[in-house]
Amino acid sequence: MAGMGSEAMNVKSILLVEDDPRDVELTLAALEDQNLADKVEVVHNGAEALDYLYRQGKFKTRPEGSPVVIFLDNKMPKVSGLEVLKSIKSDEHLRMVPVVVLTSSRETPDLVEFYQQGVNAYVVKPVDFGDFMSAVQQLGVFWADVNEAPFASWRDEIKGGNGTNVLCGKKELNDEIPPHSVSGG
Question: How far lies 109's CA from each of 73, 119, 124, in Å?
Fold first, then answer.
């Protein structure tokens, strides 16, 4: 993954998975206000989203790396947003990518199921144009500019749980953390 692949991974991209052309246009307009629209890859259904993430089909030649955030609609043709989320969260290379559901569904079972499957945020699309623009702008700024995502080069080397060391790059974190000292008092 060294060389040209690492350059591609430094580009912060957003994946927008949305089948409604009007919502795509509004989302891109909101992100444009925050200078983020040029970093958005748009796909129109869940099957395209999976092709993009797994670099297959028409996305076979796209640069390596994962988006810093995925904005995901739920009710889409071919593969639902919930199925896309399940695939992402069950894949060791993708599970750390934040997923924000942007949906019109206010149904409690949908909300609960998405959180059970590991979604990072669930946002009901506001009907009001101004509210929608504001919500998308805030999401874009937070996930693409403010949030610190794990380095892509670490993703393949992160181990953990059950007493194993966490690897980042080629160094073990345990080597850099001073031992805990216990003080009485």
Answer: 16, 14, 14
